[in-house]
Amino acid sequence: MAEGTRVAHVTRTTKETDIDITIDLDGTGVTDIQTGVPFFDHMLDAFGRHGLFDLKVRAKGDIEVDAHHTVEDCGIVLGQAIAQALGDKRGIVRFGNSFVPMDESLLLAAIDISGRGQLHYAVDLPIQIIGTFDTSLAKEFFIALASNAGLTLHVRSLAGENAHHIIEAAFKAAGRALCQATRIDPRIANVLPSTKGAL
């Protein structure tokens, strides 16, 4: 698939949320995020900008209950959009990794576009709430993203004291790792990067 054509638009409506996401894997990091959860908007903005994805997110959820359904369902829909935009996956690099420092924090994200959606998450957070955002929801987002995009995703904190820095570095690292993994390598433009012939 030629670069510049890997765009997907996915919507999902339930009794809890109404999500509409568009992603261009070959963008320049232009983002337009509105979820009703300000800290999460900031994280998705970081993910898109540092992954160089053009990303538009519109989400309405039952945030009067809490942000859980909105954050998780955005992960589901974003994962589905990534999978759709990847198409047949021919020519992709497949693997990507990124170390991102943010002041005292250092995060690693490593991705294999394996088709086997799974998250391995080792992130220690010193507090549970940032503003009104439950920090455990970062993991819920990455679970949903990995499962629905078909990613093997490792997110690991190597250092950190400030929860905001840790989570933000995690989103930036995941975006940068996914950017690497989704690139088209012209040497294998029509080849599926798998010894078994399937991803």
Question: Any descriptors?
Answer:
199 residues; alpha+beta; 4 helices; Ribosomal Protein S5, domain 2; four-stranded mixed beta sheet
Structure write-up:
InterPro entries: IGPD_sf, ImidazoleglycerolP_deHydtase, ImidazoleglycerP_deHydtase_CS, Ribosomal_Su5_D2-typ_SF. It catalyses: D-erythro-1-(imidazol-4-yl)glycerol 3-phosphate = 3-(imidazol-4-yl)-2-oxopropyl phosphate + H2O. The chain is 33% helix and 30% strand. The protein has 4 helices and 10 strands. It has helices at residues 38-51, 68-86, 137-149, 163-182; strands spanning 7-13, 17-24, 31-34, 54-61, 95-102, 105-112, 118-122, 129-130, 133-134, 152-159. Strands 1-2-4-3 form a 4-stranded mixed sheet, covered by helices on one side. Strands 5-6-10-7 form a 4-stranded mixed sheet. A two-stranded antiparallel sheet has the order 8-9. The longest helix has 20 residues, at 163-182. The chain starts with 6 loop residues before the first strand and ends in a 17-residue tail after the last helix.
Strand content: 25-35%
How many β-strands, per DSSP? 10
Distance between the termini: 16 Å
* Mean pLDDT score: 95
CATH superfamily: Imidazole glycerol phosphate dehydratase, domain 1
What is Rg? 16 Å
> Which class do the helix and strand fractions yield?
alpha+beta
The CATH class: Alpha Beta
Tell me the strand order in the biggest sheet.
1-2-4-3
Q: Could you say what the CATH architecture is?
A: 2-Layer Sandwich
Which descriptor suits the 3D outline?
globular
**Strand-and-helix sequence, N→C?**
EEEHEHEEEEEHEH
Indicate the percent of residues in helices. Answer: 25-40%
Please work out how many helical segments DSSP would assign. Answer: 4
Count of discrete domains? 1
Largest sheet: 4 strands, mixed
Which stretches are low in confidence, meaning pLDDT under 50 for 5 or more residues running?
none
CATH topology assignment? Ribosomal Protein S5, domain 2
